[in-house]
Specification:
This protein is mostly helical. Helices cover 53% and strands 0% of the residues. It contains 1 helix and no strands.
Length: 62
């Protein structure tokens, strides 16, 4: 049984719409991966350190 002309046209529209959606998803995913792959170089910032000196501490017992 041969399909009617409107049914054939609807199939073509469905295929074209699906292809467009797939293309948009792949393009968006590709852009996201490219953005995530961008290397971020941080400046080398010196961090001051504190020195803790130990002292003798006597704790009285009851």
């Amino acid at each position: 049984e041969e399909e009617s002309e409107p049914a054939k046209i609807q199939k073509v529209v469905d295929v074209a719409t699906t292809a467009k959606i797939i293309t948009e998803v792949v393009t968006t995913a590709s852009d996201t991966i490219t953005t995530a792959s961008t290397t971020i170089i941080a400046a080398d910032v010196p961090i001051p350190t504190a020195t803790i000196a130990a002292t003798d501490v006597l704790i009285p017992t009851a």
